[in-house]
Design goal:
Layout: E1 4-9, E2 12-19, E3 31-37, E4 40-44, H1 52-60, E5 68-72, H2 78-81, H3 84-90, E6 95-98, E7 116-119, E8 124-129, E9 132-138, E10 148-152, E11 157-161, E12 176-177, H4 180-194, H5 198-208, E13 215-218, E14 223-225, H6 227-238, E15 246-248, E16 251-252
Helix pairs in contact: 5-6
This protein binds fe (ii) ion (2 copies).
């Protein structure tokens, strides 16, 4: 578990709130982020049921439940949404998610969908509070059919969900990627299998390359900064992945197998 302030400028902060411990969810370790502007907070990909108490405890070091003004779900996976029922009970924050997942989320035990805001395919600029705006950007098919990124113009940090995610072995837990080549073995198999196609990757890279990005913050693994931001984007733009590597039904080129 760790708590790292990635950006701080007076009243604005972007915090890696928690990184789950190995085995904590009996799955891949995940990152949860808190963006703060004054006393207003936005929680990004709050995580599964198992990490919820720890994420809450970390958040309470910064703000109270009533000061949480938004929760962003990058997509529908259980490592993101599994704890949402409890967050809905503890806070009054609206929840932002692609509109295409709205009708599936009740299966997480959510009875009242009034708190959810379905985002359009093209994304939207979201005004959280006075002087606190976030860009909710499309990243569809990477890997989810309705995937949302968060760009914070104040910190110039792009949260990318599973894009850029690493499966790091126990013991290798540097919080930042400073040498992209040495990081590649931990991202390549995952991206080849879980990202849907080079077309989706290329369209996304071309879109986000127009942004001024200081860091790329994924939902799993280390955070890209400095030169590794552009090294990652250049690599991902050329990656053959997903259906590019299918040779038949159930048959992948060896490099796409996990
Ligand atoms: Fe996912
Ligand atoms: Fe994930």
């Amino acid at each position: 578990m760790r708590n790292i302030t990635l950006f701080e400028n007076g009243e604005h902060k972007f915090i890696l709130l928690n990184e789950s411990e190995p085995g904590e969810e009996d799955g891949i370790r995940s990152n949860q982020y808190l963006i703060l502007h004054g006393r207003s907070g936005v929680l990004v990909d709050p995580g599964g049921f198992g990490v919820m108490p720890r994420v809450l405890a970390e958040m309470l070091r910064h703000i109270g439940p009533a000061e949480l003004k938004g929760i962003v779900l990058s997509h529908q996976d259980p490592d993101i949404v599994g704890g949402i029922s409890t967050w809905l009970e503890l806070t009054t924050a609206p929840v932002f998610v692609s509109k295409i997942w709205m009708r599936f989320l009740p299966h997480y035990g959510i009875r009242d969908m009034n708190r959810f805001r379905g985002l359009p395919d093209e994304g939207t600029r979201c005004s959280i509070d006075r002087g606190f705006e976030l860009d909710l950007l499309p990243a569809h098919f990477l890997h989810s059919e309705g995937q949302i990124n968060v760009y914070d113009p104040a910190s110039k940090i792009l949260f990318t969900g599973d894009i850029g995610a690493a499966t790091l072995p126990d013991g290798r837990d540097a919080p930042f990627v400073d040498d992209f080549e040495s990081h590649l073995p931990y991202i390549e198999p995952f991206h080849k299998r879980y990202m849907c196609s080079n077309k989706a990757a290329r369209l996304w890279v071309d879109a986000v390359s127009k942004l001024d990005i200081d860091m790329i913050a994924p939902q799993h693994g280390a955070i890209y900064r400095g030169k590794s931001v552009h090294d990652f984007l250049n690599w991902f733009r050329e990656l053959r992945c997903g259906i590019d590597l299918m040779k038949g039904s159930g048959i992948f080129e060896a490099e796409a197998s996990l």
